[in-house]
Specification:
The protein is an alpha+beta fold and 222 residues long. It has a single domain, classed as Gcn5-related N-acetyltransferase (GNAT) (Aminopeptidase, 3-Layer(aba) Sandwich), CATH 3.40.630. Strands 1-3-4-6-7-10-9-5 form an 8-stranded mixed β-sheet, with helices on both faces. It has a two-stranded parallel ribbon with strand order 2-8. The longest helix has 13 residues. It is globular and about 50 Å long. The protein starts with a strand and ends in a 12-residue tail after the last helix.
Length: 222
């Protein structure tokens, strides 16, 4: 078995949708370290693939998409209904006063097949798409659900990558009801500091040797 990362193609939309269906939110749980995703249609995934940054993790034997990551580009984000949620965010005062990035993106989803054997690859997928985002953006936002269920699956990546919590949003979500989410932000300079740390370079080299991901040297400071 060898896992590779690549840019998503139109025909991957169904596989991505089927992975999302395995990761439906279960309200009877109190928390989830395996992760879950809120509702997205197959047509929405097709749109993401066409307009935004979407990577997939693919198993070569059998040929199968086992995971995906989606980041919404700045130009699409500021013209979306999602961006209107920013008005509902209870922003950290210092952050709101200092944030002035011209181009920011939103880490929309990261999902892997619900199989423990594949979970290890989620970190490679998460870092790969974050690197790609910072080729063209200055900041990356994301959210994690804290109520009615605490979603802890993304927290290890959020902490290691250097995100910081900058707010909280309280809203009503279709088919679920009242939800609360924590809002995180990572700026490009902070991420560059992280990926140039010796321990992260070891992680990258391991990824290359094992064939899990193809990180480029251009992402590192000379």
């Amino acid at each position: 078995m060898q896992i590779s990362l690549r840019t998503a193609r139109a025909e991957d939309a169904l596989a991505i949708y089927e992975i999302k269906e395995q990761l439906r939110l279960k309200l009877e749980d109190n928390s989830s370290d395996g992760g879950f995703l809120l509702g997205t249609s197959q047509s929405a995934y097709e749109k993401f693939i066409h307009e935004d940054i979407v990577l997939v993790a693919e198993n070569d034997r059998p040929k199968q998409v086992i995971g995906f990551a989606i980041v919404i580009k700045h130009e699409n984000l500021v013209n979306s209904a999602l961006f209107q949620r920013a008005e509902k965010v209870q922003w950290e005062t210092v952050f709101r006063a200092s944030f002035n990035a011209k181009r920011f993106a939103f880490f929309e989803q990261l999902g892997m097949l619900n199989d423990p054997a594949y979970r290890v690859y989620s970190k490679h997928l998460a870092f790969a798409i974050t690197m790609e985002v910072f080729d063209t953006h200055e900041a990356l936002f994301t959210t994690t659900l804290r109520y009615p269920i605490k979603n802890t699956a993304a927290l290890p990546f959020i902490r290691v990558a250097g995100f910081r919590q900058v707010g909280m949003v309280d809203e009503i979500y279709p088919d679920i009801g009242h939800i609360k989410s924590d809002v995180y932000c990572l700026d490009r300079e902070r991420f560059l500091e992280v990926i140039n740390q010796p321990k992260f370079k070891i992680f990258v080299e391991r990824s290359r040797k094992q064939g899990y991901a193809n990180f480029s040297d251009e992402h590192f400071r000379k």
